[in-house]
Amino acid sequence: MKILQVTDLFMSFRGLVALNGIGFSVEKGEIFGLIGTNGSGKSTFFNCVNHLYQPQRGKITYKGKHDLLSKRSHQIAKMGIARTFQNLELFHYTRVLENIMVGLHPRLDMRRYLRKFTLKALMSEWEADKNEAFKILNFLGITRFHSRLVTDLPYGLQKLIELGRALAAQPDLLLLDEPSAGMNESESKEVARLIKSIRDDFGCTILLVEHDMNLVQSICDRLCVLDSGEIVTIGRPDEIVKDPKVIRIFLGEESDA
Ligand SMILES: Nc1ncnc2c1ncn2[C@@H]1O[C@H](COP(=O)(O)OP(=O)(O)O)[C@@H](O)[C@H]1O
Ligand SMILES: [Mg+2]
User: Fold this and answer.
1) What CA–CA distance (Å, rounded) separates 160 from 164?
2) Whether the Cβ atoms of residue 167 and residue 135 lie closer than 8 Å to each other
3) Range(s) of the domain holding residue 93
4) Does residue 130 sit in the same domain as residue 185?
5) Ligand minimally distant from the alpha carbon of residue 35
6) Domain boundary among 118, 151, 170
7) Is 54 in the pocket of ligand 1 (CB under 6 A)?
8) What atom in ligand 1 is closest to the CA of residue 38?
9) Mean of the per-residue pLDDT values for the chain?
10) Which of the listed residues 170, 197, 213 is the one where a domain comes to its end?
11) Domain check: are 102 and 183 in the same one?
């Protein structure tokens, strides 16, 4: 089953074309990687999926029936699409545990709260949310940081906390924008293991933007290579790394640096 179908998506910023009519589909249960040089349109694509950006043209269909570009971002979150951001979106002067609890929000049923509007009922909801958040911290192996302020922690750890916040929503589709940025090799390996486990154990479909080629090769089922807002190719990682067009793009970037 296709969980996401993208058709002729076009987005430009005052004449600068960020996505030039791209189209592809993602199967349920896939780990689908998006790679490409800086500025190739990867984050813009994510911003279109949860409708933070309004593309000028095209369509994004979720689970075969939901037209995402006709929905608002909070409705999209409620439909089971969660994401992390390239530049973290966390409450930096709030504790780790509360940041994870914020992620539970799309599933909160306000009517349930209002029906039981007593202090005792609210406290028990709060306790239940706290337990959920601790389960996620456990899964990520970062329980010991639960009472620390986010701002006091290193960037790589903040990335994991953001992943936890996204997971708290129990998404069906998870969009991860450079989850291993700021991490060393062993931390990146751990992130790769976690992403795989999120798919294998929770049945979550994953769209992954990532620069670390070792990481994408080791866990992605398919890769889509973007260049200047256009799709160069889509295929299995072992095919992609041998593709001369792809090699040229990445070597080109290195020689420019
Ligand atoms: N909000 C924005 N306003 C203007 N230009 C933008 C905005 N977001 C992205 N762009 C431009 O769109 C292009 C693609 O950017 P982006 O999607 O962030 O690339 P990537 O994530 O692949 O590095 C870049 O040229 C970038 O400067
Ligand atoms: Mg980006």
Assistant:
1) 6
2) no
3) 89-170
4) no
5) 1
6) 170
7) no
8) 23
9) 91
10) 170
11) no
